[in-house]
Design brief:
7 helices; binds zinc ion; alpha/beta; rod-shaped
């Protein structure tokens, strides 16, 4: 062992953390090295003196004074970090949080039939019944809210029925997915999906 190796071991020994073979090797070095032996004695004395000092009580005002005297720690804005790392999730969460209330009131207030699609000239609306007649094609998605949807013809996109009923005739052909949303929560998810879809376009 050289002196460079011995120094940290001396500190460990004085802390009471040195065990086994390290302790033995340090002992051998201290016997053979006068410099380290002197240092060891000095540190041992200092250590003993420190241990003899009465415990010091620090007043709370002193702690506060020291803490206030320190330069301010630059606060990391973890919320901003999160937004930077997950922009899409953050937008969705904020959107959901802010809009949830208004969705709920929309859900409760809105009792009118709503039909949405990019291609509605082949759709027949009578009262609250929406029909895609046989031999007719709706190109793209068709969304019907609070109504009865009857499909005899073709829909090339997705079919979404919100709080309504769906009747698919044997002649009906839907190329996309058929989704029925019956509950307010489902409605929120549907609107959220629509919103996220809007962002990604
Ligand atoms: Zn030494």
């Amino acid at each position: 062992m050289n002196c460079k190796e011995a120094l940290p071991l001396i500190h460990e020994y004085l802390d009471g953390d040195l065990q086994g073979s390290d302790s033995q090797r340090l002992k051998e070095h201290l016997i053979s090295c006068q410099a380290c032996h002197a240092l060891f004695r000095q540190l041992e004395k200092t250590d003993a003196m420190v241990r003899m000092l009465p415990p010091v009580r620090v007043s709370e005002t002193l702690t506060a004074q020291i803490m206030s005297g320190l330069p301010p720690v630059k606060k990391r804005n973890s919320w901003m970090d999160f937004i930077r790392k997950h922009p899409a999730v953050s937008v969705a969460v904020v959107f959901a949080t802010v809009m949830f209330g208004s969705f709920m009131s929309m859900w409760n207030d809105d009792t009118n039939l709503m039909v949405k699609g990019s291609n509605l000239q082949d759709v027949v609306i009578e009262g609250n019944t929406v029909t895609v007649p046989q031999g007719h094609t709706v190109k793209g998605d068709l969304v019907v809210q609070r109504g009865k949807l009857k499909v005899e013809g073709e829909v090339t996109g997705n079919l979404i029925v919100i709080d309504g009923s769906l009747n698919l005739a044997s002649t009906a052909h839907i190329s996309g997915h058929v989704t029925q949303v019956d509950e307010a929560l489902g409605w929120v998810w549907y609107k959220l999906g629509e919103f996220v879809g809007m962002l990604s376009h």
